[in-house]
Amino acid sequence: MDSLLSFIEKEGAQRVDLQDVRLEPCEKDGVLPNGFYCTTNQPTAIRVNAEWIPIERMEMDCGIAYEDGKAFTIPMCRARVGQMIVVGHEGIRVDVPRRAGPSGSFEFMSSAISSEKPKTLMVEEVANRIRDVKSRGRKVLLVGGPAIVHAGAGEAVEEMIRDEWIEVLFAGNAFALHDIEYAFYGTALGVSLEKGTPAPHGHEHHLRAVNEIRRIGSIAEAVRQGVLTKGIMRQCVLKGVPYVLCGSIRDDGPLPEVITDALDAQDAMREQLPDVGLAIMVATTLHSVATGNLLPAEVGVVCVDINPAVCTKLADRGTQQAIGIITDAALFMKELADVLRA
């Protein structure tokens, strides 16, 4: 038996000690007890009074709090005095999900990230996964960067939101702002998306766009007043698709709905994640990594970027379920919209 256990541990498994978990109270707001258990994004349970309790809201890089018979992840900054926190490694069970097999999507994509994979087949597999997620009553999250708009794929995303393929949006100020700039002026960063050339005084367009939305009061109000007549953000308002716009130190304006406190932005993102079954991350490094850090391992992730390093960073920071597709953001989104429409 000892030799069998040694072999199992050598293969990466851990013994589960059949003893209860240790709990200690927080002594200061925003500070976890010394020796607190650091979570992964894998399904986890703790043993309390000889009973295994699954952890709710599974998320990496958090502590585990236990209250009223329930256990849940808690970010360090949200810990409060008196909360009971799991300490040490005793009484903790981590279940590593199996990767999708022949009956699941992405089987042919199971090798390392590569720019040489057949893009058309990969887009079709992503579309199949979207359909599967939707059929199970789960939602598809788009984590989008401004390159989607700059490269001319805004209308494809607008169509997917209108047709209810995308039901949650995470982005930054620039994504929403350049979508609105295009709706107002036909430009993104001052460049005409029809002609591909700089527009006269185009460098002013994004500033005038954000100023107009701030004058009106919100993106939603601009839609209601008939000022914002097209674009991704308008379609989100019309379809009731929740969006979380997270601020940056370099933001212009920003738009009224942009959350400029990073911790508040994280909490707003967490609120939208419970029903998400698939996250598609396109052309945005920081938002992709940030979202990946909040997702449990059982949520599928597709990372699309022209730079292979973005997909590698996402996986290296713990989102190991991510599938990397190395291609142009606009070409991917347009082809995905075509496949879903068909």
Plain-language structure description:
- With 342 residues, the protein is an alpha/beta fold.
- The protein folds into two domains: 13-94, conserved putative lor/sdh protein from methanococcus maripaludis s2 domain (conserved putative lor/sdh protein from methanococcus maripaludis s2 fold), CATH 2.40.420.10; 107-180 and 241-341, Rossmann fold.
- 35% of the residues lie in helices and 20% in strands.
- It is built from twelve helices and 15 strands.
- The strands form three sheets. It has a seven-stranded mixed β-sheet, with no helix packed on it.
- A hairpin with a 2-residue loop joins strand 4 (63-67) and strand 5 (70-74).
- Helix 5 crosses helix 6.
- The longest helix is centred in the middle third of the chain and has 17 residues, at 119-135.
- It is globular, with a radius of gyration of 22 Å.
- The chain starts with a helix and ends with a helix.
- The model is unreliable at 1-5 and 100-112 (pLDDT under 50).
